[in-house]
Each structure stands twice: as C-alpha cells, then as structure tokens.
Write a sequence for this structure.
C-alpha cells in the first residue's frame, strides 16, 4: 500500500508574488530586555520572509503575536492575507530563539518544514520561504528543508472503506524558495532529498501495513519487486534454501508460523566497481512478534507489526542507494520471520545450530530478533564485507536507557563514532554504548557456545546483551555497528515535526549517509 506522494521543486520568484495556496515563513522567539517597553516575548522574523513582511507594512510580527505566536519550535500560526500578497494564507512556523551568528540548525529547519507542511494538509500547492544561508552551510540547510517538507507531508493511505469528510489530503506540491532555482548544487540537493525521503516514506508504508498483509513471503515479494524495479540484484532464500544453507536461527524463529521465513539479499554494484570497499546492511524483519512461547502481554502487542522496521529501513535504504549511485558496493540482508506460538514453535531450552556453526541455547523465545540477525550477519561476513551496519528494534532496554528518539549503537568503536556523527547530521541521533566483558560472562551456557540472553535471566544491561550476542557472529576482519531502534523506529504518539504517527523510517537517512561517507572516504 503506497501513501500519497508530495512533489518538490525550487523557485526563485519573490515569495510575495508566488501563486500558491499558502506561503510559509519562519519566526524566532525573542526575549527582550526588562524595562525596554517591548513585550517580554517578542517575535523576530526569520530571513526569507522579508517581502512578505513588507507587504504587511511592518505589522506582520505584531499581528502574528496577537494570534498567539511565540516563535516556539514547531509552532504553526495561520494568517489570512486578504490580498496583501498573492497567496491567500501566510503560515508562520516557529524556529525557536534566533541563533547567534548563524542560520538555524538543519534539524530545526527540518522539523519546522515538516510541521508546516503537515498543518497545511488540504492545500494543493505550498511554498516555503524559510531561512537558507548563502555560505558553505547552504546545501545542508536546503536538504533539511526539503526532507522535512516531504516527510512532514506523509500520510499512510490506510484501510478506511467510507469517505472521511474531515480527512484532508497531504500537500500535493511544495515549492522551496531559493536565491537561484537553476543552481546545480541546489538542484542536486532537491534530487537527493526526493530519493532519500521517498525511501523513508516507503519504509514507513511497509511498517504501517497491517501485519496480516505483510507476512514473511509477502514482505519478501514486496521488497523484491521494488528492488528489481530500482535495478538492484535480488536473491530470495525460501524455507527450503534456508534449511539447505544452515540458517538455524531464522528457521527456528519462523517455524512456529504457517507463513514460512525468508532471507532477502539485495545487491548494488557501482559502475567500474567503485572504490573497492564493500558495505553490508542488515535489518531485522520480524513481521509480527507475539514473543512465541515466551508470549508478550496483550497490552500494546499490536505495535509489534513494527518489529520489521529494521528490515524496512535496510530495504528502503537500498532503494535510495540505487537512485544515488554511490561509488561503493552495498549489499542488504533482510531476514524475515513471524514469531508465533504453536505446536511447532521453538522452545526455551532448545539448542540451535547457527549459520556460522555456533550453538546457541535458547532461554527466551521473545529474544528472537538476535537469532535471525545472527544468521544474516554471519552470511554477510561470509560473502565479504569491510563494514557491516545492522539495525533492529531489538530491546526494550534501548528505550529505558536512551528514550524514544536516540538509538543505541554498539560494535567497533570507530564505526560507532561514524554512526553517531551520521545521526547528528541527519537528525537521527544515536549514542555509542559499551559491550562489557561481564555481560558476555553472564551469557555463558552450560550446554552450548552461548546463551541467547543472560543465563540467569537477569535483565540488567539488556540492550548490551543484544549487542554482545551479535558480536559472536561478526568475523574479526569486519568493522561493525549494531543500531538498536526499538524506540525511534516507531512513533505511537501524536505527530511532531516531520514524524507522523506510526513508522518513522529511522534510520534510513543515517544508513544512506554512512554509505555515502564510505564511498567518499573509504
């Protein structure tokens, strides 16, 4: 199921003269000096909206303040123009306090553009006249505005059968005001934003799809079809091929469901072979997670349709890679299974033979993600990789430790730092975490090479246990990073910034950034 798409283009016409349904400008909050006679919290117009303010004879910020505008981040205030400018509606979006000596941070622009475009649902054509610097920071700022607009306008198509009179369609067309619409660098940023944000939207669509419609065989088919259309090489291993190949972890988790598991491999090979480096992306694809025999509580279980967010992100990131054509070989691995309780389910106490030959003692069937990931990561190492990035909604411990916006990162120290930097650049923050020896010691098994969780079922350092386990399936010559997105991968609250309710598409933009970084810097 595909959500309605928003188109994006550049324009260098005076914003006051644009024939659009709404023009968006930025405003900053401004704290005035006591005793100055000015309001305690005055508005400051952001650059980009000067011609709009001039049309209002200098009374625009005063009028917006009367309507309740404070300039707070993400605040949206609408004002009918009554013919003062061509657009019938001016929309002021808050950017927070004015930055000292610099343009607003890219993430502030990204969230503001997202909030404004989402608030304008129902308007066919919208223009953004937000502050864009004219220095070396200009491409990053333009990228942020473009991504925010495309992602803030996302709406999942849904399954309603009756007309919804109050439901407004997402903005169909967004124009971004820039000094020179023909500038090659600006045009390149718009093209990139469309490719990357389009991939994020695809990832969101997959996560938001009802789990009865996206069981492992169907998920594999959908991803494979999109990948082939994008020009990627596709390999799909069904249950027979998985058994023949020794993928014990994927098979164990999937054996409780009548919908058999899959492993999808997507490969992008650059023209001329690229820079010689090889990047592997691995994503957890549990299409629904009941917990298996170790069944979850009923409360909130419906959100477990999102337990394939890692695979959705990897599959979508591969689509963006195919469009952007970086000079590095990239291979995506998407292990897919449905974790169900039945007479054929794997059990606590089972010992599973994994793809790399290691024996794993199962203690909790709800720790299934690491089982399917271990096989896929071992396969990626066997195929050959210099860098391995894996992402998954792996542990509730990530949410407890870092909340719902910041991913946890474990693995090779240098690569974890690259993930952190990429997360900062894309607005998908991640924080490196340790892999302590005592956590590994607690996972010693009396009957196998390693226990799937702490042998005493101690949940202390639960997020770290996941990382420690996965480390066992990465060869020493491969730099790797595990990105736990249990919180950031799915947003159950109200829409905010460019995040809408449901799948977020995290960390598609981080993965694409990392691939481009390896292509450029090795």
């Amino acid at each position: 199921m595909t959500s309605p798409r928003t188109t994006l283009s550049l324009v260098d016409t005076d914003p006051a003269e644009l024939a659009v349904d709404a023009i968006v400008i930025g405003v900053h909050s401004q704290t005035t000096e006591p005793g100055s006679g000015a309001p305690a919290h005055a508005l400051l117009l952001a650059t980009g909206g000067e011609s709009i303010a001039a049309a209002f004879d200098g009374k625009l910020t005063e009028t917006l303040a009367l309507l309740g505008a404070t300039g707070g981040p993400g605040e949206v205030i609408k004002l009918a123009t009554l013919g003062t400018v061509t657009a019938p509606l001016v929309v002021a979006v808050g950017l927070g306090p004015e930055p000292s000596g610099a343009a607003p941070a890219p993430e502030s622009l990204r969230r503001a553009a997202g909030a404004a475009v989402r608030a304008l649902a129902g308007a066919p054509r919208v223009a953004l006249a937000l502050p864009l610097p004219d220095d070396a920071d200009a491409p990053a700022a333009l990228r942020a505005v473009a991504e925010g607009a495309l992602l803030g306008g996302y709406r999942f198509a849904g399954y309603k059968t009756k007309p919804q009179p109050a439901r407004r369609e997402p903005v169909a067309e967004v124009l971004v005001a820039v000094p020179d619409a023909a500038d090659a660098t600006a045009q390149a940023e718009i093209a990139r934003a469309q490719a990357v944000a389009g991939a994020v939207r695809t990832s969101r669509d997959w996560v938001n799809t009802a789990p009865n419609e996206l069981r492992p065989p169907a998920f594999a088919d959908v991803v494979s079809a999109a990948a082939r259309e994008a020009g990627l090489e596709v390999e799909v291993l069904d249950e027979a091929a998985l058994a023949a190949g020794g993928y014990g972890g994927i098979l164990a988790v999937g054996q409780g469901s009548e919908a058999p598991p899959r492993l999808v491999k997507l490969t992008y090979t650059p023209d001329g072979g690229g820079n010689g480096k090889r990047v592997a992306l691995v994503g957890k694809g549990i299409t629904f997670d009941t917990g298996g025999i170790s069944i979850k509580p009923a409360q909130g279980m419906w959100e477990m349709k999102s337990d394939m967010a890692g695979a959705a992100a990897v599959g979508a990131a591969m689509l963006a890679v195919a469009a952007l054509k970086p000079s590095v070989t990239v291979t995506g691995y998407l292990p897919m299974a449905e974790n169900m309780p039945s007479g054929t389910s794997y059990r606590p106490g089972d010992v599973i033979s994994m793809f790399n030959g290691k024996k794993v003692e199962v203690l909790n069937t709800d720790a299934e993600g690491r089982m399917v990931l271990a096989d896929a990561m071992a396969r990626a190492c066997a195929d050959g990789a210099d860098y391995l990035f894996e992402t998954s909604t792996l542990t509730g411990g990530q949410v407890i430790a870092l909340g719902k916006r910041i991913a946890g990162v474990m693995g090779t120290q240098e690569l974890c730092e690259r993930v952190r930097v990429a997360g900062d650049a894309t607005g998908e923050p991640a924080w490196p975490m340790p892999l302590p020896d005592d956590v590994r010691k607690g996972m010693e098994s009396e009957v196998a090479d390693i226990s799937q969780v702490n042998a005493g079922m101690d949940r202390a350092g639960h997020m770290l246990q996941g990382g420690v386990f996965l480390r066992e399936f990465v060869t020493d010559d491969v730099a790797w990073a595990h990105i736990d997105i249990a919180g950031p991968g799915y947003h159950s609250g109200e829409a905010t910034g460019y995040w809408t309710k449901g799948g977020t598409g995290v960390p598609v933009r981080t993965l694409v950034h990392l691939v481009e970084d390896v292509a450029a810097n090795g």
About this structure: Residues 302 and 498 are 23 Å apart (CA to CA).
